[in-house]
Amino acid sequence: MKTSRGIRNRNPGNIRRSGGHYKGEVVPSGDSEFKQFETMAWGYRAMFVLLDGYARRHGRNTIRTMIERYAPSCENNTRAYISTVAALSGIGCDDVLDTRSMEMMTAVVAAMSRVENGMPADMRQVEEGWRLYVGG
């Protein structure tokens, strides 16, 4: 079985290359389209940072509105992505997310990682990413 690109890049959210940089990011990325991170935990941290930015800067504070921006329908089956993340996380797709809630956000990010990579997230790595996120 071939390892998914997100796992190979230690970028479980398949965050695209951009002008912005995250802590733990490998620069330059060896992937022409996606960021690479030093560890999976740093990749998860980047997802927490990105989703928090969606909520704080863009008012996108539900699974539905975050994923509509994160995984636009021009590239993804956004509707299926939203319903899968809601089902796996146990959080309604229109419930307001508290991006400072470890319980809520680790469930959402783990579910997104599963959609992106086709396999369950290692919760130890997700939680380590959370610790890196809240630690600065």
Question: How would you sum up this structure, described in words?
Answer:
With 136 residues, the protein is mainly alpha-helical. It has one domain. It has 6 helices and no strands. Helix 2 (40-58) packs across helix 6. It is globular, with a radius of gyration of 14 Å.
In short:
With 136 residues, the protein is an all-alpha fold. It is built from six helices and no strands.
Query: Number of domains in the coordinates?
Result: 1
Tally of individual helices:
6
Mean pLDDT: 96
Helix-strand topology string = HHHHHH
| Strand-residue proportion | under 5%
Principal-axis shape equals: globular
Number of strands: 0
Helix content: 40-55%
Radius of gyration: 14 Å
Model regions low in confidence, pLDDT < 50 over at least 5 residues = none
Head-to-tail CA distance between termini: 36 Å
Major sheet summary line:
none
Structural class: mainly alpha
Which key features would you list for this structure?
single chain, mainly alpha, 52% helix
Question: Which helices and strands, and how do they pair?
Answer:
Elements: H1 5-8, H2 40-58, H3 63-70, H4 78-89, H5 102-117, H6 123-134
Helix pairs in contact: 2-6, 3-4, 4-5, 5-6
